[in-house]
Structure to design on (252 residues):
């Protein structure tokens, strides 16, 4: 799946590029929960993503997609793409010991694929089967004790941690394994536009933050622990977590 492979390539490039760079004196790496050895580079990339790429490209394109695409078409596409992730989420939940959720993912996949026109219609939800959030292989890794690794702000993409390179495993399961490069790019782009457009009403949270970079980093790292179902020593403000729940999951 191209989005996962792209993460690995970009992460490797970032490590090479920033490996010899100095760490700024004002970075908050004294917090043991923060692993941000490339903060100087990351802040530059954050400014590029947030100040230029998002307002001049990602945001307007996303809003145009939502405004001009008929709702039945958009919902059908979203259902279809979500259905593709059900098998990998099932396996990752099994690895995390979530048997009930794994069964729900399994039932949702075969029901929607069979009776929901390959997932275009969410028949499973109508039948009362809970729709859980996607679980990636990196979530299973984190749940089983693998650390997040360094935090990296990828230009044109958004925040990631090195552990997410393991998500390439998800692309090995059918039906994701059947997607070619362009289909994978299309899936990532369509899901990202839906996510970005849905968060316009919550932009003030980020704009009112005294340090948007630190705010983003803290929310993203805590979100990674949340999806991996790892207990953290600090509590997350619910409004902040709601905002970055999907926004930082997809990146810019």
């Amino acid at each position: 799946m191209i989005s996962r492979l792209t993460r690995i390539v970009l992460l490797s490039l970032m490590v090479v590029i920033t490996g010899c760079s100095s760490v700024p004196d004002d970075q908050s790496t004294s917090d043991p929960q923060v692993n941000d050895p490339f903060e100087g580079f990351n802040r530059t990339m954050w400014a590029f993503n947030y100040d230029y790429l998002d307002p001049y490209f990602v945001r307007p394109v996303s809003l145009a997609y939502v405004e001009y695409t008929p709702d039945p078409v958009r919902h059908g596409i979203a259902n279809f793409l979500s259905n593709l992730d059900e098998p990998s989420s099932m396996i990752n939940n099994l690895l995390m010991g979530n048997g009930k959720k794994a069964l729900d993912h399994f039932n949702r996949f075969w029901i929607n694929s069979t009776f929901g026109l390959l997932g275009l219609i969410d028949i499973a939800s109508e039948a009362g089967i809970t729709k859980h959030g996607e679980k990636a292989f990196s979530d299973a890794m984190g749940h089983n004790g693998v650390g997040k690794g360094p935090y990296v702000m990828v230009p044109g993409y958004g925040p990631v941690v090195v552990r997410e390179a393991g998500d390439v495993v998800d692309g090995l399961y059918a039906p994701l394994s059947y997607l070619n490069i362009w289909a994978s790019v299309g899936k990532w782009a369509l899901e990202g536009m839906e996510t970005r457009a849905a968060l316009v009403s919550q932009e003030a949270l980020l704009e009112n933050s005294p340090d948007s970079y630190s705010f983003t980093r803290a929310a993203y790292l805590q979100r990674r622990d949340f999806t991996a179902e790892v207990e953290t020593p600090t509590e997350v403000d619910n409004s902040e977590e709601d905002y970055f729940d999907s926004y930082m999951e997809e990146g810019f």
Observations:
- The radius of gyration is 18 Å.
